[in-house]
Design brief:
By secondary structure, the chain is an alpha/beta fold. It has 15 helices and 13 strands. InterPro entries: CoA-transferase_III_domain (IPR050483), CoA-Trfase_fam_III (IPR003673), CoA-Trfase_III_dom3_sf (IPR044855), CoA-Trfase_III_dom_1_sf (IPR023606).
Length: 386
Amino acid sequence: MTATPLQPYAGLLVVSLEQAVAAPLASCHFARGGARVIKIERETGDFARQYDSAVKGTASYFAWANHGKESLCLDIKDTRDAALLHDILDRADVFIQNLAPGAVARAGFGSEALRRRNPRLIICDISGYGEDGAYRDMKAYDFLVQCESGLVAVNGAPGHPGRIGVSVCDIGAGMNAVIGIQKALYARSITGEGSAVKLSLFDTAADWMTVPLMHAVYAGKAPQPAGLHHPSIAPYGGFRTADGEVLAISVQNEREWASLCEGVFGRPELARDPRFCDAARRVANRAALDAIVAGFFAARSRAELESLLREAAIAYGAVNSVERFAQHPQLRRAPVTLEDGAEAHLVAPPVRHSFEPETPHLGRVPGLGEHSAAIRAEFARIGETA
């Protein structure tokens, strides 16, 4: 007999007036933990539903960030729909929203007003650039925040800065929202009072840029795009093998450098070469060093190199395509049910708990407005008995 898994968020009601990626990812975390999550959508739906149709007709981001929720269509500018949302929020534990700055306040759902009605409510506002300042009203799509924050400037290849290939600012903001809400829930367990949680995509990206920023401000030189290389470590990067693969290596200290020279290259004298005898000299002479590494790799197969690198305890990894990543032996997947009843497999949640199944079912992706009638009827009955 299989024990019922513990659901630490069971009993919590999370309401999310959400669109795109950041807020949906945050609320999805609570759905995975057993909370009841009501997703508020316009009649036209969260536009992320239309991003693509890659997952058996369902948008990939939408399937990832919205399973396990109920979908309620509302027009918060409509008096009756606004009243319904107030009734729901009066009983909610958490309210998440990522509309444009000021939009929810103008509709009567600002943080202070809501907490006067429900002092235990935790309100999480996710914005692009924050709720004040010159950039307050700027459109803040993930790519643009990557550009504004300097993330693009430290990525890509030399002379060719590049966007990070997934929506990292949206994803990171969603993660920060979860951290902020969990902290607020813990504070409420002590004080009995809810609180406001505010974060932005820009602040999320800025936090990640702390080290490059410190280099620019205090050392006078920001890291430049280096492709697969590292600005201050060598040898570090991807090198093509005889059978056309690319293996990346990372040598981070003198012990590893000596081991690479002797155990892999069979040339222990390289470790004492004046051009390469310490980290700074290896970086200064990177071109000559990389030529040696590249020549050695080009004459051997991936399998032969992996055996040598493993035996010498040198850190390495394959530069995989997404197709090869999809077959990776360490990749864990978990099933999700799409709105039409079909099953797909997403990447399994990265955090595992001993009280959860090893491979949890992620729940079902809701159809647009699928739960509208039931939720309206439920809260109408609550209103009648209040």
